[in-house]
Amino acid sequence: GSLIFVLATLGISTLTCILIRHQTMMPESSRWKIIKLTERAIVLAYFAAFFSPTITFCLFPFDVQESERLINESQFELGWVPARGAYFKFPENMFIHTIIGAALTNLFGTIVVPMCPFWHMFYVLNRETNTSTRTKEMIRQSLKRLFVQLIIPLILLVAPLVIFFTQMETRCFPFIFPVLAMFCIPLHPILHNMVLLFVMPTYRKAIAKGFARLSRRNGTSV
């Protein structure tokens, strides 16, 4: 439950950041410039889309005894599961299918929705005539860095979850695929920070200043 809430919050914050960045670039005369009330309504829609299935899933009561029965009656050989530790077998009913469908819709939306504003921001930037070439290049670099930062979450968070939920719904992958996919999620913080170091000069300068300050303190103490 905690992991689901964290991932949902990450998805909401990412989409909100892209929305605000997109609106910052839109000129006042653009038809794509929305008022603050509409912007808040879109953010609330993000919360509803991500948290409604999440909260419903976490609060829905599941019976442990039913889980044991489902394992015993499963068409797959699952007798080894109880010996491996804590476990739970979800029933295959309309509720679970609806939750999985909502999760897959949100995940695919997290892939598609950010791409459209990015394409539009680059399009508007290329057609902008009242901005100097130097400023346009700086904005373009900023957009590229923001886009690169999204690649790692898409690969290490969204893609594994798509594989996991698709396997739950269709069983179209070998059993090992969703297992390996979920093991990719812990790699996200490490690789994301490495990407930030490569593409964001601000992070590198802050770390360099920190090391320089630490070395000066050590030199003074000696």
UniProtKB/TrEMBL annotation:
The chain crosses the membrane at residues 6-22, 43-62, 94-125, 146-167, 173-199. Keywords: Membrane, Transmembrane, Transmembrane helix. It comes from the Eukaryota. The keyword Transmembrane applies. The keyword Lyase does not apply. This is G protein-coupled receptor. It comes from Pristionchus mayeri. The lineage of its organism: Eukaryota, Metazoa, Ecdysozoa, Nematoda, Chromadorea.
